[in-house]
Amino acid sequence: MSELRGRKILTTLQEDGQLVVELAEEKLPQPTGHEVVVRVDAAPINPSDLGLLFGPADMNTADYGEGRIVATMPDGARRAMAARVGQAMPVGNEGAGTVVAAGEAPEAQALLGKTVACVAGGMFAQYRTVDARSVIVLPDDATAEQGASAFVNPLTALGFVETMKRDGHSAIVHTAAASNLGQMLLRITQADGIPLVNIVRSPAQVALLKDMGAEHVLDSSSDDFRNDLVVALKATGATLAFDAIGGGKMVGQILHAMEQVASEGQDYSRYGSSSRKQAYIYGALDTGPTILNRSFGFSWSVGGWLLFPFLQSLDAKTLEGLRARVRDNLTTTFASHYQARISLDDALKRDAVMAYNARRTGEKYLLLPNG
Amino acid sequence: MSELRGRKILTTLQEDGQLVVELAEEKLPQPTGHEVVVRVDAAPINPSDLGLLFGPADMNTADYGEGRIVATMPDGARRAMAARVGQAMPVGNEGAGTVVAAGEAPEAQALLGKTVACVAGGMFAQYRTVDARSVIVLPDDATAEQGASAFVNPLTALGFVETMKRDGHSAIVHTAAASNLGQMLLRITQADGIPLVNIVRSPAQVALLKDMGAEHVLDSSSDDFRNDLVVALKATGATLAFDAIGGGKMVGQILHAMEQVASEGQDYSRYGSSSRKQAYIYGALDTGPTILNRSFGFSWSVGGWLLFPFLQSLDAKTLEGLRARVRDNLTTTFASHYQARISLDDALKRDAVMAYNARRTGEKYLLLPNG
C-alpha cells in the first residue's frame, strides 16, 4: 500500500496536573501477519470513553485552542490517575469502518474492502491497526454507522441477561433505562420474555419506553416512585438490578424495595428475609459515593460489573453465540441512535465538548473521523 | 418431673410505637419425643440479641419499672419492623445449662444431667425447651459459663475462614478485631497459618492483640492508618474483609487500599485493576449508611454475611467438623471473656441496660438467668 497517514485524538495527564487533549498525526506501518488497517468511518462516544478522554477535569474552564484542549484535573483525581501521568493515551473503545490494508495472513487478506466493527481501543482516529481475528464482519448491506456500536452496548445488554441466568435470577431492574443500552436491553428482554423494570428520570423518558412497548417504566423523579417500585418488583419478581448511575441512594432504594416485597407476609426476622438480592453497578453517571442504608437485611450483594472481564468468563461457544446474535440483528434489536455526528476537529471544540460530555441519557454522539 | 415454672425476657413492639421489654412467668410443658428442658445457667448478650431486644429504641429516655421497660421506637424503625408489631418475642440466641427434663426418645434421655450448649433462641430465660439433636454436649470438665458462647462467635469466626477458602482468597482483614469474635479469629488464623489484618479503634486494643501475638494490628484512629493499611495488605495479600461496623466509610477505605496494592506497577486502566476485592458486612455496630466512594475500579463486591444461612450452605460433614473443633477447644481457642455477669432482674435495670447496650468492643455481658 502507499504510505498511510492519519490523525487521532490523544489524552495526556501531565505531571503538573494539566490534562491535554489533542489531535496528533501518525504514520501507520505496513500491516503484517494477522494485522489489518481499518479506515474508521464511525465511532460512538461512550460514557466509558469520556472517563479516559476527560475524566473529572473541568471542561467548562478549559482552554480550547486549535486541535488542542488544556484543562485542569482536580487533585483527588490526579492521585487516582497516577498510573497514566505522562502517557499520551489513544481513546475510543469501538467503531466501524473499511479494511484498507492487510497483512499476509489469509484471515487478514480476506477482509480487504470489507466493512468491519472492532473494539480495539484508539478508534477516535482516521486509521487503526487491529487483529483480523477480533473484528465482526458486518453484513453486506450494513453501513459503518450501523456497526459502530456493535460491541459495547449490545454485548453489555446481552451480558446482563447472561449474568441473570448464571446468578439464578429471573427478572431485571435497570436504571438510566432510556439510554441506547437500555433500549437494547428492553428489545432483548421483549424477544426473550424476561420481565424488565425500567427506571428513568423524566416523564418524557417514560413515554419513550412505553411507546416501545415496555410494561414497567418508573419515573424516579415522581412522588409515587417508591410505591411504584414495590408494585413493579412484586409483579416481576426481580431480585437483580443493573445500575448505570453508581452514586447516590438509588441502589439502596432498589434493594430496600426488593426486601419489602420478600418480607411481605413473612414472620419478622431482625436479620431480614432470606431472599438473595443483587445489584451490579456498571456505570458512574453520578461519580459521587454510593450510599447504602442497609435497610434490607443481610442477604444482599452490591458489586461492580464490567464488560471485558465478563466476556472473558464466557466459554468460546457462548461468546460466539452472542456476537452472532448482534450481527444478525444489527439494524433492529441492536440499533443505536445518535444525537449528532461530529468530525475529529469538531470533537475538540468547546460547544461540542460541553454537549457530549454532559452524558445526557439517550443523547449519544457519533464521531466520523474521516467525515 | 414436677411442674417447672420459670421467668423469661420478652420484647414487644406495640401498635402505638412503644417498645415493652419485660419479665414474664411461664409454665413449661412436660417435654416429649426429642425435646429436652435446659435450665439456662449462662447466656451471652450478643450484639445480634440487642437488635431484637431494643433495636434503635431510645433506651436513655425509657421508663424503667419493676421488671418492665417502656421505650419509644423511632418512626423509621417502626416501619421496618412492621412484621413484629404486637408479638411478644423471646430473646437470646445462645446459652448453656443443665438438662433437667427429657422426652422419651433415647437421644433426649441420654442428655439428662448433662451440661449442654444450644443456639435455640429464647435463651434469656430460666428454662428453655430445645431439640436434643441440636445441642453441643460440653466436655465433662466444662462449665455452662465456658459453653455459653459456643455457637455464635466460634462458628462465625470459623465461617469467615471457610468463606475465605470457598471464595478463593488467602488472607483476611477484620474490623472491630478486639472483640471476643476477633480474638477467636486471631487464634484460629494463628493455628491455621492464615495472614490476618486486625483493624481496631484504640491504642489499648492494639496492645491487647499484639500481646496475643497478632502481627498486623492497625489503629483506625491513628493518622497513619491509611498508609499502615496499604502496608499490611501488601504484606498479607488480603483481598477479603469482614466488617462488623457496617456504617461509615471503613469498607470503602479497605477496598480502596486493596485496589492501591493491586494497581501498583500495573498499566493505567480507567476501569481499575482486575483483582477481585470482596467485603462482607456481618454486623451493624454503626447503623448509619455504608458510604462507598467507589475509588476501587469495577472488580469489587460488598455484601451481607449471616451465620445461619452460611451454616445451611455447608454439607453435614464440614459442619460437624466445625462443631467438633469448637467442643475440643472450648477453653482455649474459643474462650470468651465477659465484662460482667448479671441476673434476669438486673438485666432490665437502667444502669445495666446503658452499659451492655453501648456495645463497646470487648465488653460483653453474661446473663445468669438462674443466678
UniProtKB/TrEMBL annotation, chains A, B:
> Can you tell me where the transmembrane regions are?
none
Say yes or no: keyword Nucleotide-binding present.
no
Q: Which UniProt keywords apply?
A: NADP, Oxidoreductase
Q: Name one GO molecular function term.
A: oxidoreductase activity, acting on NAD(P)H
Coiled-coil intervals, chain numbering: none
Q: Which CDD domains match?
A: ETR_like_1
InterPro entries according to UniProt: ADH-like_N, ER, GroES-like_sf, NAD(P)-bd_dom_sf
Q: Where is the Enoyl reductase (ER) domain?
A: 17-292
Name of this protein: NADH oxidase
- Organism of origin is Sphingobium lactosutens DS20
